Amino acid sequence: MNYINRQLERKFAKMSDFFKAVLVTGARQVGKTTMLRHLAQGQNRTYVTLDNLMARELAKSDPVLFFQTYKPPIIIDEVQYAPELFSQIKVMCDESEETGLFWLTGSQQYEMMKNIRETLAGRIGILELYSLSKSEMDGTVFENDLDFTLSGLKARQAKAPKNDVVDVFEYIWRGGMPQVVHADSEQRQEYYNAYVNTYLMRDVAELGGVTDTLRFSKFLTACAALVAKQVNYKTLAESSEIAQPTAKEWLRLLTSLGIVYLLRPYANNALKRLTKTPKLYFFDSGLCAHLSMWLTPETLMNGAASGHFFENHVVTQMLKSYAYSGTKANMTYFRDANAKEIDLFVEENNLIHPLEIKKSAKPDSREVRKFEVLEKASIGIGCGGIICMCEEVIPIDSRNCYIPCNLI
Fold first, then answer.
1. What is the mean pLDDT of residues 310-328?
2. Residues 6 or more apart from 60 whose CB is under 8 A from it?
């Protein structure tokens, strides 16, 4: 299988030249190890995985002997299994002037992250890798970071293939897990079955002590039914036959494992009576489509949930784009007491870029009138628009454009 270049490689190389240790976190099977081993080609770098029980036992019982056996520079896979290593890594970092000594991968767990931040503060860079984005799958490389100006979008358009709804829904249905890129529908189904039954169930049992696999399975399906909607703990609890506090805890677990993402609502003192409930998205749309029993891309594209899946696609592609780029942005959504909603706010440099998301190729331009609500607040409003299935960037007014979804 050919290696697919990852957008995080640029940032990872930069952090490895700066920090003595770099940790890549993310959900299982998104390609963390593959990326690091690819980047280590031609280097004399040791590799060890703590999935190997003997190596794990040694790491836990005798970290000094572990590093005599497996010498840096090193890749340590699944480092969350042996937090005992962190103190020794700190000692070795302090004894050396060399950067990039330790390349670590691990699942994004609350306890591990707390531990590693306390022990290795200032010595470690922490990056997150997600399943393959649409542009990674297409091999599209944008030279400019995402910005919503007409000129910025036009520059991206010159690099992107033509927007195509069938192609977009094929990606949404298939998902971005590297192993399903070339799988047929039967192989894909078996892959996601195994992913849920093996990795997910094992991780939630280890991390959260969840042993009721039947109810947890129902809970996952209930989450998929809420994709791109406000979280409703009552619905989640009733669908899974569990108590609401358990539903909250299980959703927290899925968030910490990098399976779901909760988009926070926008908060501002000048705009009263805003919702406090987050919206739920799946980082990998293929897993969500599998849990929702959409058996083909066509049925998903033409089905009742297609708009929600399209919104999920746009929000997660945007997240990946910002995670891998040099610019930092804060993403929220807007909803007030009158149920007036704006799908996405991207906040950067004290400006808010308001964005609507529509599956249509020619949405109603009046959608941007909603953005006027921002004029009541003392907030700088940047360029925005409607992210949709149109084929090229078209201005709506001086500040907003129709934005093809393949430019994010």
1. 94
2. 81, 82, 84
Question: 6, 86 in Cβ contact below 8 A?
Answer: no
pTM over 0.70: yes
d(CA 389, CA 377): 31
For domain 8-128, which CATH number applies: 2.30.110.10, 2.40.128.600, 3.40.50.300, 2.120.10.30? 3.40.50.300
* pLDDT tens profile 336-371: 888 789 999 999 988 999 999 999 999 999 999 999
Which residues neighbour 260 within 8 Å (Cβ) at sequence distance 6 or greater? 223, 251, 254, 280, 281, 282, 283
Task: Give the 3-state secondary structure percentages of the chain, helix then strand then coil, rounded to 5.
Answer: 45, 15, 35
379 falls in which pLDDT band (50, 70, 90)? confident
A 10 A CB-CB count for 205 gives 14
Do 181 and 132 touch, CB atoms closer than 8 A? yes
Q: How far is it, in rounded angstroms, from Cα 81 to Cα 283?
A: 24
Q: What is the pLDDT of residues 107-131, one digit of tens each?
A: 766 677 888 888 999 899 999 999 9
Q: Above pLDDT 70, what percent of the chain?
A: 98
Relative to beta strand 341-348, strand 380-381 is unpaired
Q: How confident is the model at residue 110, as a pLDDT?
A: 67
CA–CA dist 4, 138 (Å, integer): 9
Distance (Å) of CA 245 to CA 233, 234, 237, 370, 402: 8, 10, 9, 35, 42
Tokens 């040099």 belong to 326
pLDDT above 90 for 281: yes
Give counts: helices (H), strands (E), the chain. Answer: 17, 14
* Distance in angstroms (rounded) separating the CA atoms of residues 368 and 395: 12
DSSP assignment letter at 20:
S
Range(s) within the chain of domains with CATH label 3.40.50.300: 8-128
Backbone phi, psi, residue 351, to 5°: -120, 145
| Cα 290 from Cα 189, distance rounded (Å) | 7
